[in-house]
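User: Please fill in residues for this 175-position structure.
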């Protein structure tokens, strides 16, 4: 190979490398550009709202599950299942009662109001949709159940509908 063609090849490779670097930088700019303010605010608002509702949903769903499984929902059982103290449960139960989701009857336990039952059923359905979606993707049952517990509170109805459609189209992993 002559010195001239070697120089030409080197220049060509340098130009190619510059072009690749320019393309990468252009892609990085697209990735790092901030979304507009309204979208940013809405995203954070949705996350804050999901965090506020998360505990409510979890407690109401647990109360429903305990009533179905053992016939009653007691503070001690809720504390054990949630890994928190009984005073923490008592505080949340007062909040749920003030919101109209439960009724506490001394010496008899905790009962869901019709509004609480509705919320428990909606929470259970959200969880099942997310869990089934993860199973269809190939996530193990144990991890799918655990991940769905966190994810169910943070997805929009539009996303849930997409998860459900995808799952119905592709079947469940158990099929």
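Assistant: Residues filled in for all 175 positions:
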């Amino acid at each position: 190979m002559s010195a001239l063609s070697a120089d030409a090849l080197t220049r060509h490779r340098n130009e190619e490398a510059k072009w690749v670097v320019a393309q990468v930088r252009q892609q990085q700019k697209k990735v790092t550009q901030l979304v507009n303010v309204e979208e940013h605010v809405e995203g954070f608002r949705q996350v804050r709202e999901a965090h506020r509702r998360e505990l409510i949903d979890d407690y109401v769903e647990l109360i429903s599950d305990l009533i179905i499984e053992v016939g009653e929902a007691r503070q001690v059982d809720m504390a054990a299942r949630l890994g928190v103290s009984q005073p923490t449960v008592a505080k949340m139960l007062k909040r749920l009662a003030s919101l109209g989701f439960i009724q506490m009857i001394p010496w008899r336990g905790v009962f869901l109001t019709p509004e609480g039952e509705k919320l428990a059923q909606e929470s259970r359905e959200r969880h099942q949709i997310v869990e089934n979606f993860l199973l269809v993707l190939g996530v193990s049952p144990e991890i799918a159940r655990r991940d769905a517990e966190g994810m169910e509170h943070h997805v929009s109805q539009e996303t849930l509908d997409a998860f459900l459609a995808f799952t119905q189209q592709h079947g469940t992993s158990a099929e």
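For context: Residues 50 and 153 are 6 Å apart (CA to CA).
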